[in-house]
């Protein structure tokens, strides 16, 4: 078979990423950057080949969006356009799959007002209950992948020419996403099986509390909600089929208890929050809530995020990533959450994933909150996996179970 | 002033093309081709600078649309998506300006079923009465310009490299659009004044019937509806302000009587109908209706067009272009209607422009039809301006007034 890596990546994205069914519509979100356009076309082609009933495009252009942030008042971002609400809601009602091709310039919105950005996202989220609900409770199939915009490639490889940087970043993406001479679907089923086995070990250990420590100042206690489990690899859709919401994915993740987080966390990578970078930052929590925070750069982004409504100032995700991850091994910061979060242990502020609570797919948001699962309009990951990170687990009975030592799973969990 | 030609072209497009008002929204339609993206960004910037309240983007990608034509059944194209209808209707209700950045590959849809393409357009047109009505009766400001996609540039300059072809085509566009070292607005006001003066001469001549003849077989009689006038250069918006709907524009145009066209017309350029080429074609008319037609290539495009509903098989526009036009002088076929129609006398099948009937802006479609103005879901221009084209005009009293000799205005009308 003489299938190019790009074609393989597109097929993997459609067949495993969103696991498109014959007769299902798909929404593809892409930017106008040439490499993203090229990959979007490949994905559209793969989607039709897989039997899509419809391929709907949602294009963005970060330069034009930056102009919008610069020229429109905050108030204007507080209402989502009706046609865009209709686009997402009608697609969700038709059980569309949702594919996001990420990879924009990490600093595309460095001059934008973060309050405008958060407001726009919150307005859209609250106006699209079918779409947001389906994404959050896992009944809709969605997937995030990334392709190298020129801006992203130059941020990761500033010393290369634009063309070289794009090529080198494509090669990183292929390597990290397990695209090689073999069948990509096979590679991923194997990878998913390994993550599943690790997930089972972790869930069987009966850990109800974690303690994170590393030399950079992280010292955090995290209670787990009753019944919460770690998941990883493939997600289960409402109809029982499986898909991979992130390509790549190297994490096992769950939800911390909404009111059960205490201590301090220091980030180890910059955070690229939708085109704005935050560097050298950390949080202090008391009973789940952020009570203090700092940042060397981009603190105004955190200011805006933490004002992102109910739950924005509490954690919603706890995720374990071994430092042997192929992304971490490249020893490179990608300034892109999809890549960086799969290089290191991380947490997220905001919305929890309902799939981490068996039976949650039919629960209301209120029910989930009762189960101590964060319900929020935002979900922002940040990385805490220092090279010397230790994580201890404790069972209900108080038994200590070492989970991480020096950034890696202990032998008990390392398969 | 060190303003680049590209910036000047964008400013001309916004300030004169759609004549954007402070506080007015604008819809910009562009493809994802890199040069169109580049120009769309410049236009968005110019629009914000001119005081736009909102810049709404409608992106297209011809490769992805071609996949859609190839994979979806005809039936699916007969209904316009509700969100797209909402996008156009709500923008039109907010009195948005509409800018189309054209310039796609003239053969992007060479393999597409023309019936699907016509159906999609008709479905969208009939579902958007506020938008279509506002475009047709001139109460909405709209403008069509073009930027060189790689595909278009290579079609016009097949012997150049893609990069060279794009650069040479940009230079053509600048030259033809009167972008030079001077202020582009001044250049265009002068050009508009000349077209206006010519228009006045033609309207004062009292011509009620035209006779077209050229050696390629054209021999056509055209009656004019009572009260119809020729217009050219700037259009008058409902509120009295002026805009240029086409950049470039070299034509004086009016509407032929719906039932008053008899004889034969031979096209002199290929027709690029939305990504499909028709070559070596012509029509025979009786009492306004097409009774026969032929094409050496792409006849199926004409088959589909003529089935485009009421009025699709009758003319709706008669346009005079002197062969001294800067586009014709380059002696090059552009395979793009905006450019080719401004190189030669042409007609259009389908919808007439209401601005060619004083007082028509408040008339219903039925009223306009009573005035013998074609009302149709389509509008497709084709060029008939042979080098030896002669056009005679006749007054109500039967007086002969020579209008064109050998492809150029007679001295009476040449200013």
Description:
- The structure is a homodimer of 415-residue chains.
- With 415 residues, chain A is α+β, with helices and mostly antiparallel strands.
- Chain A is 33% helix and 25% strand.
- Chain A has helices at 5-17, 34-49, 62-71, 82-93, 114-127, 129-136, 150-156, 162-176, 184-204, 299-306, 326-329, 337-340, 365-370; strands spanning 25-31, 54-60, 97-102, 142-146, 207-213, 219-223, 231-232, 235-236, 242-243, 252-254, 261-266, 271-272, 277-286, 289-297, 315-320, 346-350, 379-383, 390-395, 400-405, 408-409.
- In chain A, strands 5, 6, 11, 12, 13, 14, 18, 19 and 20 form a 9-stranded antiparallel beta sheet that branches. Chain A has a 5-stranded antiparallel beta sheet with strand order 7-10-15-16-17, with helices on one face.
- In chain A, helix 1 crosses helix 2.
- The longest helix of chain A has 21 residues, at 184-204.
- Chain A starts with a helix and ends in a 6-residue tail after the last strand.
- The mean pLDDT of chain A is 95.
- Chain A binds chain B through residues 32, 34, 37, 40-41, 44-45, 48, 52, 54-57, 59, 61, 63-64, 67-68, 70-72, 76, 81-84, 86-87, 90, and chain B through 32, 34, 37, 40-41, 44-45, 48, 52, 54-57, 59, 61, 63-64, 67-68, 70-72, 76, 81-84, 86-87, 90.
């Amino acid at each position: 078979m003489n299938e190019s890596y790009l074609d393989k990546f597109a097929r993997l994205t459609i067949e495993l990423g969103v696991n498109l069914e014959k007769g299902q519509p798909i929404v593809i979100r892409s930017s106008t950057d040439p490499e993203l356009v090229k990959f979007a076309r490949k994905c559209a082609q793969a989607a039709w080949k897989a039997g899509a009933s419809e391929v709907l495009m949602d294009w963005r252009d970060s330069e034009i969006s930056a102009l919008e942030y610069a020229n429109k008042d905050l108030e204007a971002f507080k209402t989502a356009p009706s046609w865009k609400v209709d686009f997402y809601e009608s697609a969700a009602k038709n059980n569309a799959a949702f594919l996001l091709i990420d990879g924009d310039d990490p600093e595309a919105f460095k001059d934008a007002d973060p309050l405008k950005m958060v407001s726009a996202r919150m307005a859209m989220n609250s106006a699209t209950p079918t779409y947001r609900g389906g994404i959050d409770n896992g009944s809709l199939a969605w997937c995030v992948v990334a392709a190298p915009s020129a801006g992203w490639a130059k941020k990761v490889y500033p010393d290369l020419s634009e063309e070289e940087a794009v090529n080198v970043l494509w090669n990183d993406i292929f390597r990290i996403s397990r695209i090689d001479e073999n069948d990509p679907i096979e590679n991923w089923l194997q990878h998913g099986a390994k993550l599943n086995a690790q997930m089972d070990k972790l869930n069987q250990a009966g850990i109800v509390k974690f303690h994170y420590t590393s030399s950079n100042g992280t010292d955090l206690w995290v209670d787990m909600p009753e019944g919460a489990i770690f998941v990883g690899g493939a997600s289960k859709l409402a109809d029982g089929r499986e898909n991979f919401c992130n390509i790549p994915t190297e994490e096992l993740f769950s939800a911390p208890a909404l009111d059960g987080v205490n201590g301090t966390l220091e980030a180890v990578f910059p955070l690229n929050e939708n085109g704005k970078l935050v560097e050298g930052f950390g949080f202090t929590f008391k009973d789940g809530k952020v009570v203090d925070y700092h940042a060397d750069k981009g603190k105004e982004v955190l200011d805006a995020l933490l004002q992102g409504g109910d739950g924005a100032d509490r954690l919603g995700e706890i995720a374990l990533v071994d430092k042997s991850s192929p992304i971490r091994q490249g020893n490179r910061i990608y300034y892109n959450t999809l890549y960086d979060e799969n290089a290191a242990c991380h947490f997220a502020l905001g919305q929890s994933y309902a799939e981490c609570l068996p039976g949650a797919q039919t629960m209301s948001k209120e029910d989930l909150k009762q189960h101590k699962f964060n319900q929020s309009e935002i979900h922002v990951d940040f990385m805490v996996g220092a090279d010397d990170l230790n994580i201890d687990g404790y069972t209900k009975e108080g038994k200590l179970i070492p989970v991480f030592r020096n950034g890696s799973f202990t032998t008990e969990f390392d398969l």
